[in-house]
Every structure is written in structure tokens, then in C-alpha cells.
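Q: I have three molecules that I believe assemble together. Could you output C-alpha cells for the complex as a whole instead of separate predictions?
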Amino acid sequence: MHAKVEEQFKISPYLVFFLVHSIQLGVGILGFQRVVAKTAQQDAWISVILAGASLNIVLWLMYRILRNKEGDVIWIQQQIFGKMIGGLLGTVWIVYFLAMSATVLRTYIEVVQVWMFPKMETWALSLAFLILTYYCLAGGFRVVAGICFFGVVLPMYLILGILFPLEFAHFYNLLPVMNHSAKDILLSAKDMSLSYIGFTTLFIYYPFIKNPQKSYKWAQFGILFTVLIYLMVMVTTLVFYSQEQLEKLIWATLTAWKIVQLPFVERFEYIGISSWAIVVLPNICLSVWAAGRAARSLTKMKQRPLTLFFLLLIFIATILLKGRTEIDVLNDMVGRVGFYIIYGYIPFLFIVNLIYERVKHK
Amino acid sequence: MFKWLKKKKETGVKELPDLIALFSESKDFLQYEFPQNPQPFLIYYLKTMVDDNTLHRDIMPYIKKESVQTLEDLKAEVPIENIIITDDLQKINDGLLHGSVVIRPGKGGKECAIIKAPVNFTRNVSAPEVEFSVIGPKEAFVESLDNNVNLIRKRLPVENFKMKQIKIGKLSKTKVAVLYLEGIANEENVNTVIQRLEDIQIDQINDSSYLAQLISDNANSPFPQLIDTERPDRVASVLGEGKVAILADGSPLAIIGPTTLVEFFSAFEDYFLNWIIASAFRTIRFVAVLFSLLITPTYVAVLTYHYELIPKDLMATLISSRREIPMPPILEAIFLELAIELLREAGARLPTKVGQTIGIVGGIVIGTASVEAGLTSNVLLIFVALAALGSFTTPVYRMSNTIRLIRFPFLLFAHLWGLLGVVIAFCFMLIHLLRLTSLGRPILEPLYPLRIPDLKDALIRLPFSFQSKRPVQLQTENTIRFKGAQAKKKNDFDE
Amino acid sequence: MFCLCLSLLSGCVQQEIVDDINLLTAIGYDLEEDDKVIGTAVVPVYDAEGKVSNIVYEAETRASKELRSKFNAESPDPFVSGKLEVALYSKKLAEQKGIIKLIDALERDPSIGSRVFLAVAATDVSEMIEAKYGDIDTGRYLSEILEHNSDRGILAETNFHSFIYSYHAIGEDPFLPLLVLNEDKVKIDGIALFKKDKMVGKLSDEYLFTFKVLKQKFSTNDVFTVNLNDDIYASVFNIKSRRKFSFENLNEVPEVTIHFSITAIIKEYSGTNITPAVIKEIEARMEKDLKKKSEHIISKIQDLNADTLGIGREVRGRTRDKWSNKRWDELYPSIKIKVVPDVKIRETGVVE
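A: Yes, here they are, computed for all three components at once.
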């Protein structure tokens, strides 16, 4: 039987804005520019918008699938595909969420190691983050939503850091506009969509929303806000760097922060990297929570031991991953899986669900 | 000390003489006989608990009267209300302990009259010391429950002002009152408070702070979850908002809840000042608290790891101030922070006048000397002193203690991982606060869950015309405080 | 117990306590006879009273990071480069070897800021770094000369970021300020023009202002003096300058026109009265002067085939698809570049 979520554990619809936005904005934004600008170059900002716009449709599909259901996607899949295949698909979700959190955590640790503390032990920082994650998850979904909320609100001052490089902006870098073929721009948009993934956790926390359908507009706003932020960062990057310079930069956002100079502080990137912990933490919390919750509705086991087990898995994964190339491979893999889920599986599920609902009604 | 009580339990008092024998072991227990009376009475009381005046003016003359023959006669004659005639040993026992005079007919008979004649030594209502305000009422609670309730009731002359009373403590038997406005305060909050008070298992309640700790949602949190105040005006005001207040007999502090984190940083004086000024002061307080919390950890982090952050104009000052100092920044900071804590603790334990001297001696002499001796840098000295000042701006004493304490874990994290450590410590605090509740209501409200209407009286205080609704957080039964003024027509100049 | 905790904790990451490190503030590279690079670095030492003395280290090397370990061997505290203010390259090094290999190390190192100044030293680098400039740390002294001149003065905007920006950019070549040591002072002597990472020529200091006008939009407090005739001259200040390109025949051989408009205020006038006619004349003189100097600069960079003004990049921004790097390289020296100056005097000071 499917367990209903008690009213007291539910969250207000507007929080979906923060949940959707905070998980989209992870470590990716520190260095997505190079990959996205590779094919579309100065037109990369169009790709940012295009990829963002496509999410609008995906989100609509997601809400349409979840409409009138009281369960999460795991439950829906088991209803539609039966116990076996549904269970298998559920496992895929769990693995995906776990891989997502491991990637985010490991990439952030890498940033810290490259930029701030070359001698930082991976396990130490990973442990600190996972303890924080557990402490957060133990407070229930309301606390997870809370940390997402503050993960968006508190680091707002970093936006200033994005604006400072405009002092050295060369706006002609954006010219000529639309000088790339639609194919190039779409290819870049595909690369861009890798940064946008993650909001699929909505499939899991949907039953935790009061008046879930009312949250639709908030989810859309969340995505819109993400697109705006990415767009801002992309445009700043394009006008701040020359194209050939950008091609060499792994973390273009961080490098851009180096130019910030305030009377009381120089070298903003150190503040930025440190503050980014507040941005990364909700990411990990939400995806581990989603994995735990999904596993719970799949296995009917208690969420606490499951979560502890998952945290252990992530801990081991972060230790085993060493160096730039391995992390890149993982990032790429998770991005690709996310891409297929968003543009392949979700439309598929939508159609199957439509048929399922028709048949059931008859 | 309470030997007699133990003995009573061991032996089991069955008869009145046994009880008398038990009490007789105490030196202040008196018993007299009036044999010359036509009807001889025996009289018992605890000398230390009975008011001499009442005894000699209102009781003694009537006992000696010829017309008084029985206890009923006595009850009719003596001008004191609520005289109980009973043979219940428990009641007699309680009566004696609370300052009643017990009178028994000399010929025997089990029934006794219990006449209340308690003596009350309480200090007069005086000006608040902890929550002093320049403007506004200068009344503070005293150690008597009745007196305190009186101070509040005077400000809320309405019939739905309700007071529930419970006795808590096996030994102290403290009277605890729960105050609220019926029809405004959420029933659930009141019930939670009463339920938690009834569940308390303890022998003594010596102050209402015992209660605050015993009924708080998470006793293992350094953060207070209920506000205690010595101002009757503040209590009256929050009762009007729909909160619940708890008073204990013998304690000059009222506890109010449910509360929010920002409330700990709002002084009641904020309501006496113009809203612009009050908001500015509140903002200053928040900045001061953040500053106080983060400045020394940031100093340690930057000087230990992030020399790149220091502007080049500041570099020379910082380096030369630290040139002669042998200790790493963390030890330097902990040394100074501890020195300040020592000064504070010494000042708090000593009588006021000596305390002030200690403050000056400590502040100036130790500070200057340690800089000159090369133990600490003068830059850090300024930061630590400012941080201490910042923490003292918090109006609720408990909260300022918390802020000073949690600075130390921040320091350790700063030493461990620099700025990243500070952020991680901050995340830890944030999650802790997110999990924390006050009587079941989230303590970070109105920030999270975000309740925009409640922001009117949180980080800033908007004018009273904006305050026409009660806080959403309290889920009050009547949300309207007063009807907001009707929208004024926008007039043109000089019209 | 407490101390135990601390010692455990401190094992985790590398500490760089601010008074236990050697902050490199300036570094210079020189080319020796047998193709060896000599690195010279300066470290400020602050005493408790806040006085500064400078210690200079010297070592020869191939990779610039190798320098640090050589310096470390003779220093009481470890070297860190996070506070580097200035990197100097000798003219010889910049002309013969190119500087990109040395710059690559700076680019790769996350602790180097983007506002570090790079400069070419026309006189001996190690002398410039070893010289005493009074009670100030050498790196800061050098960087402040460059900083205020590029912020508000006549030096075109330059720093580490803008150098690698134009180094990597297609259709633009970088430039660096050229410094000379003059007794015990350092002076900006002009602009070192680069083709990719090699210095190919220089503009002398009289062209600094005009170069800035051609290069970027700016406002400055510096004074520009115009000679009306032999003994009458006028100085203008508070100069605001804007620059615009226009192109013709983009797809074949582009013809470029650089328009710039300058507004200024008269600060000093050695004649008797400032009449509208005089103002007109000052404006005309300035225009003529700027035009002459601009044409000199342009013909020089075209001769050197160094696109310091970024004209290629402008052309590229305006052509679709047809752009080709190779073709532009061939075209650039021969394209026509016209200059159209426009000077306006807005105020004449507080006296008539």
C-alpha cells in the first residue's frame, strides 16, 4: 500500500520555487561556459535560453503525469508498468539521484582542492558535508526545503560578484549575433541542458506539496530564475573573455571573480568558493533525500537506515574518484543520463501514463 | 533539613497527635492552650510563616471571647475569609506549611479550624534591571505570583484573560500560572503548555527558568526557545498578540512562547520609539550580532589561510601588528576571547561596584598589557572588543550568552578550513535553527517558512498602522488585532 | 585535551599564516647570454613599527615555478605568490623569446590575481627591482605607478587580464607599458607593442595619451597641453573621450574610420583672454595634434603588423561567415585607417 504524507509534513507551494531553483544551480555554474560556448561561441547565450525554454515543456509534462496522483513517480511507475519493471525503473531513479549528489559533492571538493586548499583531504570535506546532510535530512523534508530556501536567499550577494567583471566588458564580443547555424546552437543547447538537470527530484517530493497543482507556476518561476541567472553569467563571461581565452578556462566564473576588488577585500573568488558551500549543500541534501524517499516507497523499509547507507555509498564514491579526468567522466555520465531522462523518458512516461489513464477510466 | 517529611513517609501519620509530634521537632512550631476559656482551644502554627499582626489582631481576641464556644462560632466571628473546618490531616498539614493557624477544641475531637494568616515578605515593584528602557513603564515583576498577575491584569482588563494554575515540584510545590487570552491565543498552544507543565517530574522549581528549560522543545540546544522577561508591559503586549505566558511563584521572570528567533533581538523599547528609529536600531542589533559571531573567526581564517584577501593597503598594518606574536592566530583569538569571557564572568559574580572596577581594570590594563607584551595583536584586540560589545546589544540575556558561546566552534572551524570552515559552521547552525521549534512552531519564522505578513515586525518594525493583524505564526483564533485605519484619500498639496 | 584537538585539527590543510610567509610582490625576468632566464623577486619585510624593507632574491631557471623552490632554499619563510603585484619582463626577453611561457605559469596558478600588472622594462630588470624607492615595498610602488596612471591617467587600461584577453583574442594583439629606471624613480616610458607574445616595437611616451584615446573610452584628470604658437599654450584637463569605429567595404578590403570625441575643460591659458575664437582655435589645434599622432601610431602598428587597436576583432564582429584569420593577417598592413577627431571645450575654468 502506498503511504500518504501527513499534512504536517507538507510544504507550501511557493517553496517549490526554491526547491526547483536551488538544485539546478550547483557547481555547474562555476564552469559551464567553456563547454556551452564551444560550438555556439558568441551565440551561446541563445542556447542558454533555448535549453531553458525546453524545460518549460518538460515541466508541464511532469505536472501532467503527477496530476491527480497521490504518490511519487516510483508508485506511478509500479502502477503503470507493474511491480517488476516499475521496481527496476525505480532503482534507476535512485541510482541517478545518488550519482547526482556524488558528482556535485566531488566536483565541489575538487574546486576547493584546486583553488583553495591543495592539501585538503577528500574524505575530510566529504565527511563534513555528509554529516551536515544527515543532520539536515533527519529533520525531515521541511528542513530540506528550508535549507534549499536559504541556499537560494543567502548567497544572493554573489550575484554582485558576477556584475563586477562588467567593468572590463567588451560588448562587441557578442557580435555578430546569430552567426551560427541552428545545428550549432542546438548542440550547445544540448550541452547547456546538462546544467539544468536535477529538478526531476520534483517527481519524488510532489506528494509533499500542499495543493500541488498550485505549485506549477512556482516551479516555472524557479526555472525562469535559473535561466536568468545562467544567462547573466553567460553574457558576462562572453563579454569578459575573448573566445579563445574562454576555451582554456575550466572554471570561468571563478576566474572572473578574480577581477573583483573592493576596498576591504581583494580576490573575491575565495569568498565565492567558500560561500558556494551553502549553494552545494541543498543540492546534496535534496538529491539524497529524494533517493532515500524513493527507496522507501520502493522497498517499504525505513528511510533512516536507507539514507545512512546511501550516505556511506556517496562517501566511498567521493573518495574513489581521483583527479580531473575521472570527475569529468562522472559529470558527463550523469549529465547524459539526466538528458535522456528529461527529453526521452519523461515524454515517454507521459504518453504511457495518458494511455493508462484512458484505459483505467473505461 | 526536611527530615520531618521523610519521617512522615516512613511512619505514616494517622492521627492528629502524630502530626503535631512531627512538627514539634521544628523549633519554630508553636502550640498554645487557653485553659482559662470556658471552651479551651489548642492553637498550632509555624511562627516563621504566620503574620504576627493578623494573629494578634484578628484571631487571638476572638478565641478569648466568651461567646465563642465551638469551631463554628469561631468561623463566624473571626474576620478572615475561607476558614476551613476539617479533620483531613493532609489539609491541616498543608495549612500549617503555608502559614495558617490551626485551632482545635481543647477537649479533643478530630476537627480543626484552619485560618489563613500567612506572612508575605516581598520586595516592592521596582524598575527593570535586565530589560531596562529609557522610555516607557518602569515596572518589573517581583517574586510574588499574585503581585505579578496583578501587574498584568491591570493592563488587560478583559474577561477573557484566563489564568490556569498548576502546582509543580514534589518539595517546592510551586504555584505555576499559565496566562492567555481566550478566543485569541491558539487553544493548541495553551494545551501544549499545560500538557508539558503537567508532565514535569521534578522536586523543586526555584525559578521560572527551570520551567523554560523543562518545557522547551529541544533541551540540548544552546539556543533558548522561550523568551523570559521581567516586564509586565511586554507580557501584556504578547498576550494581546496571542501568545501564552507562564509565571511561577517566587520568580520575577515570566516566560512567553511560542516565539521566534528574531524576537530575541527585539527590545520592548522598540515599540516606544518611532518606527523608523526602532527599525534602524533593530537592524543595528542584527548587524552587531552577525559581526560579533563572525568577525574573530574571519580574522583567524583570513590570517591563517587567505592572505590573498587582504587589501594591499591593510597588509602592512596586519603583518606588523602580528610580527612579534609567537602564537598562531587561533590561539591568539582564543586567548583574547577567553580573557573577555573571564572579565564578564568575574563581573557577573561580583557585587556591582566591584564588578565595574574589574571591567575597567580588565579591559584597559589587560588589553594594553597583552598587546605590549606581544601576546596579541592590537588589530585583533579591537575586533574582539567590538565583538563582545556586539553580543551585548542582544536584548534577551539568554540569547547573548548563546551568541558568545557559539563563537568558539566557529573559531575552531575557521582554524580548520578557513573561510570554508566558517561557512560550514554557519550551515550547521542554520540547519540546527531550521530544526528548532518553539512550542512546536518553527523558530526561524517569518524567514522560514517565509511569512511576508509577519515581516512587519521582524527585522524591522513597521508603524502601528501596519500592525493590525496578529502574527500568522501563532495561528491565533482571532487574527484581527484592530481595524486598520481607513484608507486616506490622497490629497493634493495644501488641500 | 584542547591542545590535542588543535594539533589534530591543524594537520588537515596547509596553513599560510600571514606573518610566516614571504609575500612575493614583484618578480622580474631577464634573458642572459646563453638563453637562460634569470628571475629576480622582491619580498617586503615589515617590522613591528610598520616600516618596510625589501629583500631581493635572484636565481636562474627555465620554468618560472622552478624559481620558487630556488628562492625557498635561501629564505627563512616559504614563498607565496598570491600577493604578486607586478611582473616585469626585460625588453630583450620580450623581443627575443616571447613571454607567453612565463605568463602561462601565472595563468595556471589560481592564487595569482587578475589585476596583476605586467610591464616591459627597457632598462635592466634586476636593477629596477633592486633599487630603493623609499620606505615602501617595491612591488607596491611599481604597481601603484601603473595603477593610478591606467585608472585616471594617460596610460591605456592594462593588467594581467587584459593582456591575456588580447593575447588569446583573434584580431587583436596585446600591448604592455614600458618602464624605465631613472636614477631612483621608475617612469612610464611608452608602450611596448606586441605581435602575439613577442615585443615588436614601441611607442614613446608622447603618444601615451593618443594611444589611450584610440584604444578605449575613458575619462581622466590628466592634463593635455596644446601649443597655440611659440609662447602661447593652453592646458586642458578633465578629459572625457569616446571612440567609435565605422567601416566601409567590409567584405572586400575594409576601410576603417576611427571617430573619437573629446570633451575637456581649460585649466591653464598663457594668453590674455579666452574668447570663443580662442576656444575654437584650441579645439582645432588639439584635433590636428591628435590626428597627427594617431596617424603616426596607426602607420607604426600597421608596419609592424600588430593589431594593437583590435581592428580585426571589430571587423570580425561585423562580418558574417566571411571572416578568415589568414586573410586578415595579409590584409591588415595595407587597409586604410582614417582618424576623425572631434574636440569640444566645455568650460573655461572659474575665471573669465
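A: One point stands out. The longest helix of chain B spans residues 397-435.
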